[in-house]
Design brief:
single chain; alpha/beta; Maf protein; seven-stranded mixed β-sheet; 7 strands
Length: 188
Amino acid sequence: MTHFVLASASPRRLALLKQIGLVPAEVVATDIDETPHAGELPRALALRLAREKAIAASAPNAVVLAADTVVGCGRRILPKAETAADAQLCLDLLSGRAHVVVTGVAVAHKGVVRARAVMTRVRFKRLGVTEMQSYVASGEWQGKAGGYGIQGRAERFVLSINGSYSAIVGLPLYETAGLLQHAGVVAP
């Protein structure tokens, strides 16, 4: 029996795994520096962070799944909003524009790390001041890449999505299932 570990404290990632019939034996939060390197683009950052988290939580005889989601607007990487000012800045940048959400997913097993990046294009409608103030007041943005969570109130801002909805939420299920299956973790 393979010991399956989710290296993420995200309740959204755990719920997505359960949605496809996978329940980790253990959930561990990793603490790594998520600061982008100079000139690092969203895809490279998402992949690097997913790999580093998988390695940080790796253990003998375990299959470790880790992920990281990055929101980019042009070449700019948006923060994981920690303050209302962060959230407001993100909403101002995303209003009326398309942006990319990149989720890197990595699986560490027997000293090997396999990773994939899933890029999804999201287009927001132009947001009014009252809409932005209401969303910021909701607090739903806290700790979320790009200052919003698509699985909540912010979904009403989305004009279109080109790519994987589950990747925007935080875990691309198709790619995750493939990586886990390769490491011997399959849904019952």
